[in-house]
Amino acid sequence: MTNKIKKIAVLTSGGDAPGMNAAIRSVVRTCAYYNIECAGVYRGFQGMIEGDFKAFNARSVKDIINKGGTILKTARSTEFRTPEGRQKAYESLKKEGIEALVVIGGDGSFTGALQFNKEFNFPVMGIPGTIDNDIFGTTHTLGYDTALNTVVEAVDKIRDTASSHNRLFFVEVMGRDVGHIALNVGVGAGAEEILIPEENLGLDRLLESLRRSKKSGKSSSIVIVAEGDKIGKTVFELKDYVEEHMVEYEVRVSVLGHMQRGGSPSCFDRVLASRMGVKAVETILEGQSNFMVGLINDKIQLTPLENAVKGKSKINKELMRVSDIMTT
Ligand code: F6P
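Above: inputs. Below: predicted complex with 6-O-phosphono-beta-D-fructofuranose.
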């Protein structure tokens, strides 16, 4: 391994996700393994601008593999979007002797990292961390698996009360513009219908499906609604609409919100984070830059950051078919 780099910094940016701490730990420990210095950058790109760094060694990251959130904090920096802000960030890094950067975050964070690399030829590597799983170049982003488990548990609990009262529940889940969480949780929790942005079911088909399920003898139902779905009504408007057209249903709404981003990471996310951190640092030490580390066919693989930003994650069509069959 060619090792000209002597100091690497790691930061988390955008929405936090379970597994980010495990990834920070992995980056720091891999640096320690190769005897290079490592700095943690607090508050994402904003902290980089302000020189909010702390020297990390292998022991600095003890007891964090099991923790949700990010010990480095995270922020969405508007100043980093300006050339002046990025210039300040570059000067802070130089002053600290930092020669490469690992960014743990989503596509917005990667766009910032790429811009920074273009302007200052500064080596950057990306680790995908977001519960949404909306990043091209990996089948799983950090936090996605944990979020699925968190949401499935929440929906199971809602099912208990739904069936006790013979109610229909609309449960809104996160996912930004994609329906990965909704689709997987919908299948995993046995939802009646799943509304995702990738397929507009339409109000008529929704009613038809609910009528069919009532007729088939079901007394309660769960409909999972992705926050980015394209049906054209909020979950609260959907409730009113269904109650108006199907008086036989008593409807309730549950918006799960930010609890989906919290909690201790699943074993899958911890292992994935550990693998990704090692690969990110080793890739930098091989003299490479501008890649995102991802999981493809269960192997850790590199995708050019540019493709990760431009590409689109695909919804699992086979799972959509499974879901259709399961709701008969
Ligand atoms: O990207 C993660 C995510 O939790 C999305 O699912 C959601 O749309 C968004 O972040 C919420 O962002 P904020 O933290 O600004 O409320």
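The first strand starts at residue 7 and ends at 12.
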